[in-house]
Amino acid sequence: MEAFLLQLTACIATGGIYASVALAIVMIYQATHHVNFAQGEMATLSTFIALTMIQAGLPYWVAFAGTLVVSFVMGALVERLIMRPVQHAPILTHVGVYIGMLLIIGNLTGWVFGYTIQMFPSPFEGGGPMLGGLFSAHQLGSVAVTLAVLILVYLFFTKTSLGLAMRAAAYNPRSARLVGIRVDVMLALGWGLAAAIGSVAGMMVAPIVFLDPNMMLGILLYAFAGALLGGIDNPPGAVMGGFLVGVLENLAGAYIVGTDLKLTVALVIIIGVLVLKPSGLFGRVVFTRV
Amino acid sequence: MLLEVKNLRAGYGPTQVLFGLDFAVAEGGVTALLGANGAGKTTTLRAVSGLVRPEGEVLLSGQRIAGLMTESIARLGVAHVPDGRGTFMELTVEENFRLGAYTRRDPDVAADFARMWEWFPRLKQRWRQQAGTLSGGEQQMLAIARALLLRPKLLLLDEPSFGLAPLIVRDIFAILRRIREESGVGILLVEQNANLALDLADHAYLLETGRIVMSGPAAEIRQDEAIRRSYLGY
Ligand SMILES: Nc1ncnc2c1ncn2[C@@H]1O[C@H](COP(=O)(O)OP(=O)(O)O)[C@@H](O)[C@H]1O
Ligand SMILES: [Mg+2]
Fold first, then answer.
1. Tens of pLDDT, residues B58-84
2. What ipTM describes this predicted complex?
3. Whose CA is nearest to atom 18 of ligand 1?
């Protein structure tokens, strides 16, 4: 029982990581209706930038905020400089560009920061084990951060007119332009926000898995499974999906398939959702009446 | 003149569709653009709102708008209800309203919402419903309301009767008449149903394969023998 509970808390902590990367994927999807395969590499690069700021002596939360800003600008620039020129190209071109970015950003990170595995500090250290020793302070803290980001994103998309305009631009770019929305600006904003959210995920996962240029490789697959499971157009659903995948992955790894086949679990979830319920468990079914 | 168009040419890639149109919409007036399927009516509206690239002159209250981006033309006061209506199907009626008024920062937005509810009471009943679940008539009403919430000087309407039952078409044209009287917005109306269009319009142009072949006051066009036979059906 004790072992099972420990297993479960580990699930929730890794689930929180998947949830925040899933949220970043859904953000890009909301803004562009594409899935950015390079999301993980962008997050890793952001985390290295955060580490550089911390090593330069900045307090953790200052470095955290600085990383959000730098990542936002980086995401917006990627949209402007890389995605904009191919925006009318066929879908396969986009997939090619995403994969190219994945490789380039990954290699760039390795080239600039090196391939040695590095420690990354947690802002929640020193609290010791909590809730009867089930959770570490960092696990609890990172879950709290993930939920806070989710709530902010949710409020942004539903309550602010900028958030509404971003959704409108993704759903129907032409109509969005007809009501005066600058669709190109909305796309850049969407990429910026997604990169910022991804950087939070990177900074939360790095203390657990340690930081190296390939840190996000496996995580992205789980996060993608979570996003699909929860509904690719639904931010709260993506977060739930991320936590669910965390639980399934760990429990299946511990009790059913063993750790070797853990990654297969993510693939099975991805294919299962695509085949059985493409809108996801919590995805909104869109009604269209003609 | 609210809208003056001179020698307007436009097309899609290598295919030219419009071959030098001249037409105008008076301040607060309704101009109808008639013509058979494929004549270029939709393309004309797209050229005015910048959805396709126009050549020639397009003047809105004397200001050149040809070549500006669609979103800038919208901000200058041109609201386009495109063919297929262009409502945001996935969003609620309320969100469509908010998007209609997206560019506005004036304090009258709330009053304009109330005005739309008065003109289109059914939209108020559907307030929190997804636009995709509305009936065709309600969607057309939503599209018009969304366009008017921009507080445009000029409203471009592309076949508001398309695909709707006759009774609903009558309702919509009754509302358009009211809008014309109460709001002072100028309207450029594209319609296949020439009878309806000529009832509402004060001026009309007849388009054939990208050229204007006849124009004049709506009442005169209505009397024209050729028009009666080919477009009015009596
Ligand atoms: N998106 C498009 N791409 C290429 N050709 C088009 C497009 N839309 C319309 N056309 C062509 O332009 C011509 C005029 O079409 P349109 O303006 O839609 O006419 P109308 O609205 O009067 O029926 C037609 O020959 C049509 O095939
Ligand atoms: Mg048409």
1. 999 999 999 999 999 999 999 999 998
2. 0.93
3. B42
